[in-house]
Fold:
Amino acid sequence: MSRKQVKGEYIETDTGNKVARKAVLVGTQHIMLGGKTVIQAEVMIRGDLARTAQPSSTPSAAPSSNTAVAIGRYCFLSKGCCLRPPGRIYKGFVHSITQSLSPVNPLAPHAATITVVQSFTYLPLRLGDHVFVGEGTVVQAATVGSHVHIGQNVVVGEFAIIKDYVRVLDGTVVPPNMVIPSFSVVAGQPARVVGEVPEGGHEAFELRELYKTIGNNPQPLPV
Amino acid sequence: MASFTPYTYIQCPCHDSTSQSRTADDAPPPTTTLPELSENDDDHAFDPRAHRSTFSLYPLEHLLYCDVCHQIRCPRCVTEELVTIYCPNCLFEVGTSSLKTEGNRLTSDYLHLNKSLTAANRTLTLDAHVAVSNARYVSAPWPSKLSKPPPDPTLLSADSATPIPPGPWVLTCSYCHWNSSEIGVKFDKPQGIFGQLQKLRYGEDQSKHVVSGDTSPTKTDSVPETNKARFAALKSFYGSQTVGANPGAGLSGLGDYGLNSPGALTRIMSIYSGNINGLKPKTKSSVMREADSPNEGFQLSDLDEGAAISQLRRDGWDGTVTGDQAKTQVEEGAQFADQLWPIPYLLRAKRSKRCPVCRHIISKPESKVSNTRWRIRLIANNSIPSISIKPLNPPPGSGLLKPLQPAHFLLTFKNPLFDDVKVTLATPATTPGRFASRVTVLCPEFQIDANPDNDMYLDDVLKDGEKERQRRRGDEGIHQAEAGKIWERGRNWVSIIVEVIPSSLRIEPPPAILVKDGDPEPDLSPLREDEDVLEIPMFVRLEWESEASHDQVGAATSREKDAKEKRELAYWCAIGIGRISQE
Structure:
């Protein structure tokens, strides 16, 4: 997070997003940014892991509407973090192997377990507003609420649900499918709720000021 | 050791009323050991290292502020009330009535499951405090999944495919891939898991162990097996005993109505005064007896611990439960890892908080579980200045303070109020404790301007210009730490300089020439934990004039409208500056 950076390190969009040129955004057509979001260098967002298997009832929609990663406003993705939509084996309708395998991601971890009657699909990853993701963190959650702080080197497992006003401390491993209720402080491997966010601590989740400190003409944090 | 974040802890005034003799009724508490404290209270400096201080110091975020009493309130002194009780995993709201009958864990998992089954991957919320014998980390709740145990473990997540496949079902942990078939727990159907678990544990006869709210005597023919059921049986037994011994004055009524009800009071009065008054001469017909049979809740203690000892010999340390596991599995009473049992989630509550003095609500969340807004939230953040600390010239290298070398720190006070605040600071000349560092506040009195209206746009426009001016002002003067002058001033903040001379951490007896007769023996014990942290006790006194509060409606209307009221608030805080290096 060096403040003094070469001019033009970030691409600033009309909606106020600041995306580092060195960020790795894969499958940008499947990534939605709400605006005023900072994406630092070496951040990887796997938009290519969009939903592949459509429910059998509805015919497959246009691929452009198929969001893989949705990010709200004032999110802050620190250097080296990774947002990856969660995937699982989809049951209940039969497909042949060729259709069910994710064409863009042949290295999908569950590819080996796919059988004829099941298919693998990714589901969208949604981030709310004011979500901070620390350095080196991997997020594979289904939903992250608003005003969430995820520390450094955290792993958020697949289909985890993090509600609003949650602080995930550094080094936590949130197991898959865990639900973290609002106003929780979470730590440990595996993660467990270790505390509660006090009433006076809500403002600390605001990322407006932090947003201003990043970009091509960064401003110092106010006192 | 390497990293140290400066901190500010603020002392809640509730500390005063208990430890010092400043009680409301002027009666000195019997435990007052320092009588001089009560005489000249002003001379008493607060010692953040005293054992009691730990319980009264809080970061600013944890403090609330009662705007009727105009005083700081901490989590320890407020009274809490339950607003909503819910399951932290599925956010299912539990009613108070079912809480009374079923306890503080989620037992009605039928609804629970229904809800979860609609979710993508059949996460089951009967969240096991999973018991695993080979892994010690598994005592905490985390999601476990109900799926059919397949022969091939790689297909584990693949199996709950078609609507309801035939069983058996198991609980699995998605973190360590444990599943409950390891302890022989399998379910026939994915509903009513709690009931099935109970059945697996205690057999078919539910009445022996499931505690329902009523402790009617119809059940007493069965033998209770769990601690909870045994307690209920004992309670009902002794309740019936007191009723039998003294009809109309049984203590059993107390539990139902609480001691606050007038009925309970008359019952107590009749217990204690009934005989003396002689109005109703009591017949000593029935004698109270102690519980003596198992169905009354009586249990002989098993003093033969041979089995436990031999198991301890066989399994060793790894076979025992960890402290955490034992704490979460109190009811199960597990001593060994193979006695651990999946237990449901502990419920969680949203709580509102009241001021202990004036009973006004100072914090109240919305009652719905999913709503994260607050109806009332009077936090100290909005009423007292925040103090942030940073070194004036960041020292190169380790960041530790060099002993006996002066260091300067910048304390920045930020005013959240909409009025100008006059701040007066006071610190003892040396910090308390064995290693007394010298502290000098260069500017102990200053004024902070009011917090401007928090208009975002205006703020942005004005900030830059003001910053510039600030810079220029700073440049033209010789910007030096100077006694009596503030370092820098902003719209609603002021920074001042504090000079500290850290003491040496060397532990040696004082030179003989300085030791007087009658001095206590110097403490030469080795460095204790965190004794190398330089912590400054600081007394902060705020003075400001604000709009008169319109508490009393009648009085307010008669007064002039823009009458100003003088306010004053004073508190101690402990400022952690840094660690002293051990040279």
About this structure: Chain A has two helices and 23 strands. The first helix of chain A runs from residue 97 to 100. The interface with chain B takes residues 88-89, 91-92, 110, 112-113, 115, 117-118, 123, 142, 157, 159, 163-165, 173, 175-179, 181-184, 188-193, 198-204, 222-223 of chain A (CB under 8 Å). The domain at 10-56+63-212 of chain A is CATH 2.160.10.10 (UDP N-Acetylglucosamine Acyltransferase; domain 1).
